Amino acid sequence: METSNFTTKILVDQTPEEAFNAINNVRGWWSDAVEGSTNALHDEFTYRHKDIHFSRQKLVDVIPNKKIVWLVEDSYLAFTDDKTEWTGTKINFDITENKGKTQIRFTHEGLTRQTECFDACSNAWSYYLRESLLPLITTGKGQPDHHEDTNTE
Question: What is the pTM of this model?
């Protein structure tokens, strides 16, 4: 049985520093409604998408221009039997130079084919990474969720 974590890569012409700064600008690519600090070791922030998804992340590893790791400390997924399926998982961004380009390897540790949200969550991560983080790095403008899209009222 395959237990591989969801992993994907993006390659950009920008420097590792530019990629690192963009990743830490979580409001610029995931959701402008993110609450909390998102760029230093031990910072904590929350993400909320309507009443469908809530998660609280803590930055547990930050190596400038090389690595960022978020620990999901709390989560709620309305569409899964185990509503806390993300809790205790880790979200990794590994930044390396590769033949004059910068590679970002994204891994969500604990998001495997055995998890109920694998299809929906891996598709969502792929969207945010390719359609929002990538343009944020390359053009300075991402496509994050907007506050009115994430509001539950």
Answer: 0.92
